[in-house]
Amino acid sequence: MNDYQINTVKIENIEEECKDIKSFTFNISRSNIDNVRPLPGQFIMVWVPGVDEVPMSLSNADSNGNWTITVKKIGDCTEALHNLNVGDYIGIRGPFGNSFIFPKDTSRLIFLVGGGIGMAPLKFLAKEISKKKMKFILIEGANYDKEILYIDEFQTFSKDISKIFYCTDDGSFGTEGFASKVFQEELKNYSKNQLSNALAYTCGPEKMMFEVFKICEEYSIILEASLERMMRCGCGLCGLCAIDDLLVCKDGPIFNSKILRNLDDFGKYKRNFSGKKIKI
Ligand SMILES: Cc1cc2nc3c(=O)[nH]c(=O)nc-3n(C[C@H](O)[C@H](O)[C@H](O)COP(=O)(O)OP(=O)(O)OC[C@H]3O[C@@H](n4cnc5c(N)ncnc54)[C@H](O)[C@@H]3O)c2cc1C
Ligand code: FES
Fold first, then answer.
1. CA of 250 to the centre of ligand 2 (A)
2. Which atom in ligand 1 lies closest to the alpha carbon of residue 55?
3. Second label for 266, Cα 20 to 30 Å away, from 89, 139, 225, 272?
4. CB 55 within 8 A of CB 30
């Protein structure tokens, strides 16, 4: 794989997930990366011709070369993406970064805790965990009811989800409150022994992930968190995505508890586009 080569792909399908969030599917079979099989947690750089290039996690990738990204409209590039139609072309580079690690022991207690657009890589992970016939507990948080993602899709692998919780900041859907709070409450239902074998995966606002991390530390649960930082090259060249002395695009975006414990910036600081440290 050439990290710098842009592959042009045609948008095959667009799904309106909810207000301001759409999923775009394209097929890579006729590109230079036709033999690449991305893993949950990996991301791609998406170039919208004439606008910008931005990082996006993969929310799905199947064995026929259909890859999907789920995009929240928040600025120029994501708005331009939202204005594209089926049949339009975008450029992609990647997949980049590491991936979530599946447990070898299929009997482990697994928690997926996500918030907002952070559900995108967790949905891909949930699908792959389901394929391995492992059960998991899913906690999805959103600002309000219209931003809850993938309800129908989660129904399709519901036999693998032992429990599913929805929560919203304003209480308009599911429990009122943050996903981290629901996670903390749910943990009270398990014995110390059960939790000693648990594993948690999280993606979403960093403040939420930091809370999830602290809870996991309290219960000695191993956590994998998907972090976001400003990215320009996506492949270890520009240094913009630095967190402490690591690069989110190369060393991450998935970081486990062992690494998170030693990251001073985690949950506290990020860098803006000019590289200046700002409070999260
Ligand atoms: C590894 C990774 C995975 C991501 N996955 C998704 C995803 O699955 N779905 C999704 O909707 N969004 C995802 N994002 C965030 C997405 O990249 C930004 O929303 C997007 O870049 C915004 O661009 P814009 O021009 O629309 O908005 P702008 O107005 O340019 O920026 C709005 C905000 O988006 C963030 N942002 C802007 N440019 C970048 C950049 N180059 N790198 C990182 N953050 C940026 C900043 O917080 C900024 O304040 C991911 C980011 C990273 C780092
Ligand atoms: S985005 Fe350039 S080094 Fe990570």
1. 7
2. 17
3. 139
4. no
Which conformational region is residue 116 in: left (phi greater than 0), alpha (psi within -120 to 50 degrees), or beta? left
CATH of segment(s) 109-279: 3.40.50.80
| Ligand 2 atom at shortest distance from the alpha carbon of 241 | 4
**pLDDT tens per residue across span 157-199:** 767 677 999 999 999 999 999 999 999 999 999 998 999 889 9
Nearest ligand for residue 3 CA: 2
The pick from 56, 90, 250, 272 for probing ligand 1's pocket by mutation, whose C-beta has the most ligand atoms within 8 angstroms, reads 56
Instruction: Tell me the ligand closest to 250's alpha carbon.
Output: 2
Range 7-96 classified under CATH 2.40.30.10: yes
pTM over 0.90: yes
Domain ranges of the chain: 7-96, 109-279
- Burial degree of 105 (CB within 10 A; 0-12, 13-18, 19+): exposed
Query: What pLDDT, on a 0 to 100 scale, did the predictor assign at position 271?
Result: 92
